[in-house]
Amino acid sequence: MSPHADRTAPAAADHRKGPRRRGEELENAILTAALEELTEVGYAALTMERVAVRARTSKAALYRRWTGRAELVLDACKVRGFSDLDLPDTGTLRGDVIALLRLMSAKMATPIGGILRGLLGEMTRDPEFARLIRERIHTVGPVGIRGILQRAVERGEVQPWVLGSRRATVATDLLRNEFLLFGAPIEDKTVIEIVDDVYLPLVLAPTSEPVGGMGGAGSRTGVPEGSTEKAEGSAGELVRNAGEPDPSAGGPAAGS
Known about the structure:
The protein is mainly alpha-helical. The protein is 59% helix and 0% strand. The chain contains 12 helices and no strands.
C-alpha cells in the first residue's frame, strides 16, 4: 500500500474507529462542521456527506436529527449566535434604535455575517430554504425592533397602532438591504441616516392611525395612500419627496 493510501484511508473510517460520541457532544461536532463547510464552500456546495466526513460521523447520524441540509444549517446558525442580540435600553426610542442597528451591524461585520449574507443570497434559488430563513433568521431584527417600540409606546413616544404597522420594521429592513447590497462594515453614518432621516419621521410623526387600519394595511409601504402631509420630516413629506407630483408646482395637467 502506498504512503498516500495510508494517509487517506483512516479519514473515511474515523467515525467508526474513534471514541463513540452521543447526544450533545455529537450534535455540537456536527453543527461546528456545518458552519466550517459553509465558510469554506458556501451553502450551494454544502452536502450532508461533506458535513458527516468533517464531523467524523455517518450521514445516518445527521439524518436522524435533521431532514436535510437546510434544517441543519439553520440550526447551526442559531446555536452559534446568529440570533443573539441583547435589546438596548437607553431610555429613548432614538437611542435604542441606533444601539440595536449598531449591534446588528457589528455582527454583520464578523464571519457570522459573511455566512448570513451567503445564506440570504440562496433564498431566490431555494423556496423551502427561503421559508426557513424567514421563520428563523429574518425575524431577529423585527422582533428586536418591536420590543424597543413597545417600550416607546409605554413611555408615550409612539402611538400603539405603530407596533402592528409595516413601518415598525423599516429600520432593520433598510439595514439588512444595505448589508445585502454593499456588504460590511456598514458605516455609522448610514445607521444614523436610517434612524433620523427615515425611521423616526415614520413612527413619530403620525398622531392617529391611518385610514385603512394598522399602518395602512392596504399599502405595501404602510404609508397612508394619498398622504399629503407637509409638516417637515413627516411621513407624507417623505412620500412626496420620493416622487409624488406636487399639485402646487403648476405645469401642464396630466394627459394634456
